[in-house]
Amino acid sequence: MPRFVPVAGPQRTLAAANFVYTVGSGVYLTAGVLYFTEAVRLPAGQVGLGLGVAGLVSLLAGIAVGHLADARGARGVYAGTLVVQALATAGFVLADGFWPFVLAVTAATGAKAAGVAARSPLIRHYGGERPQEFRAYLRAVTNVGVSLGALLAGWAVQVDTLTAYQLLVVGNAFAFLASAVMLVRLPSVAPSPAARGPRWVALRDRPYLVLTALDGVMAVQFKVLTVAVPLWLVAATSAPRWLISGTMLVNTVLIIALQVRASRSVDSPAAGGRAYRRAGAAFLVACALISFSAGVPAWAAAALLMAAVAVHTVGELWHSAGGFEVSFALAPHHATGQYLGVFGLGAGLAEALGPGLLISLCITWGRPGWYVVGALFAVTGLAAPLAVRWAERRRSAGVSAPRGDASRSAATPGPPVASVPGTPPGTGRA
Is the pTM value of this prediction over 0.85? Predict the structure, then answer.
């Protein structure tokens, strides 16, 4: 086990809190929508509208709370977002109509986005010399936790009673609250000293904003396996329906096993740009393989889909590794939370707009749509290295702050990087 968990200390505390949190997240990802449609009896259209509103509102929460974490101390702010998320999730039990549902889900989604930004200074401070690698390890932990949560949610879906769904909601809220309590063991991180200049410096960093937009386009890939592939498999192929679970299982296992290893070689912004380029090429190949699965025998469709999922997951590993590197390395140390909050805007927009885009192109249009989506990913990957070079030139000229890793205070070094495993659903870059 020592190979599979960080050494005792802040890294292990962060990993444990993340694991407990993501077990709860797995429950919600699997059965959250079903709770509102099957237990609360809200129409699916209203649920979709409410989730869209919550997603748009949450875009602003990450920037504001990320800045607050920089200015007030990340541990307390991050714990506060978990408490808010726990209370909002518990409020789902009381949401017996559309507007109570919108209020509760907006609060929960906003707190989730805020928590991702507030956690970033903690990862940088306690992640050692390579916080990006520790961030990759946390993503592997996230996939383990979400998988376990999905198993728990499967019980409620099978029982299909109001009580079973409500027990899942309450258990989800307790998981978030327990994660907040675990953070008490984490040493506090002093607020970063305020830098001269404008307060919202991340919103003035044009190269970083361009990278945010490119990452947002690339982040649509997270919805390919969870939205487009299941619909395509059922509507356009003769593959067995149980293969939907098989594709998610392959993706999850590969992420758990290989995310840390894939991130180790991505150790500079330039390497991060190249990782984006490789990811775009992999997504193009995967989209082509998926399109070929229509109109062929069941065994051939299954083989093509599984091959596509494997190639897509390789691209997902590179995309996540590139995003970890450029988002941290190009953010000044004193504004980590604010910068990572801005970087989350791209993924947030992909979360809100990606499903509709993929359904319109890949499902409604059909095979040509897969080629368009694949080409979009490939072009985005080609543009990323150019944006990274622009950001590095801007930084070298002294326009932006120095690299955060080099600006770590010598008086408060983080612990050494734990020996995390290279091999221990795509749930996004949580």
Answer: no
